[in-house]
């Protein structure tokens, strides 16, 4: 998606010869003497346009207005959440309308955060998954919405900065959705590693990939145990974004990369098992964050780690009761092979210590229990460090990618005790999201650590089935807040314009 930003009054928008114009109208009536202001005043006056967020009124070939199609959308008080709701509804209604370009204009000068919200909502709502659709699918030839111009009256530098941040973030969210959506036979551990290597072509990003031999040599016995039932070779992906000073402690992100979770020998039931292709959404979010970092160039160092493999039943598969030795040296009794996420993560968390991180954050579709606890509204947040928890919560609020903190009392770890190893990989059913987090906590030592359980938020089921790209928005917001205000120097090879301006941005 190409995004452009323009300073444009409502009077100017009236004259814009564009295929479609979406006008965002906050409470109150705009007072200009142009045709658009007059139309808005009349529609509001006669009660045909409500300014409640998400209410739409469409017109075609309106007199005195140059745009062919016109959609008026209420944004309530203009708060980012309302703008998001309105733009999602309007772009959703327009995206199948054989349209390649859309101008979104604010009737009244918006708050800077509302500009970012509009960009992100437009990008998210315009995204269409096509990768595994055949070439003969009916609507392939129809034009796709590919250019969105944001028109803002009284454009400020702050609004420009929000625009740039949103466009960069939207690119990351898009990448995360795309990889999470791909079926397991199109997103194997090998293919995820190739996607990570492709990211390393961007400035300041390096990537290194380990295979089964190297992982065995390191001693990642828990990760190997999960992968051993699959014909697909495991991959351990290590990404680095070098935006800070050399040697400066990085933030380390660890993403669960189970490319398909059958449950293994503790086999899952058939209904909805296809959705376990999304069990690498944590990994996809790490890829997406790096995509956004390349675009936004914050001044900090970030490491991304992804243990990627399938969890399959097989003659060679790990069995309930098997005991394996993790990279940390702790032995683990695998009582349930379906609790595989914590097994691949624990070795990656141990590995992460070598970077001496300033913060260590894992992202995982870890437990069905978290879906029961929080549904699809908020991700589960666990943290050993209050400052880190507060920063992540705040980032979630700002990015409208919410999370909710859950407890880590040591009493929750009681059920993980076993007579046959240092720890078992499951406890009972109560507080399943917490006991999973307690298992992970054994492998992070004293590092400031947080765990995001995105089992409920990473994808939607039912007819809207598809990846959401969460929590890329939250993570990018957090990382930008950790970095200095100024972006790192632009890569000369790309000749990128400085942040802001009227430059074109792709997302
Ligand atoms: N990937 C699943 C968690 C999951 C389940 C996410 C449903 C989203 C929807 C994970 O590997 C898993 O199977 N967890 C088990 C743990 C249990 C065996 C302790 C679960 O939640 O049932
Ligand atoms: Mn599982
Ligand atoms: Zn899983």
Descriptive overview:
The chain is 33% helix and 21% strand. It is built from 14 helices and 21 strands. With 507 residues, it is α/β, with parallel strands linked by helices. Helix 5 (157-181) packs antiparallel against helix 9. The model is unreliable at 493-503 (pLDDT under 50). It folds into 2 domains: 2-154, Leucine Aminopeptidase, subunit E, domain 1; 174-483, Aminopeptidase, CATH 3.40.630.10. The chain is elongated. Bound molecules: ligand BES, manganese (II) ion (MN) and zinc ion. Manganese (II) ion is lined by residues 261, 263, 338, 340. Zinc ion binds at residues 258, 261, 279, 340-341.
Brief account:
The chain has 14 helices and 21 strands. It has about 500 residues and is an alpha/beta fold. The termini are close together.
Radius of gyration: 24 Å
Q: Assign the CATH topology of the largest domain.
A: Aminopeptidase
Q: Quote the average pLDDT.
A: 94
Structural class: alpha/beta
What name goes with the CATH superfamily of the largest domain?
Zn peptidases
Spatial shape: elongated
How far apart the termini lie comes to: 5 Å
Portion in strands: 15-25%
Bound chemical compounds? ligand BES, manganese (II) ion, zinc ion
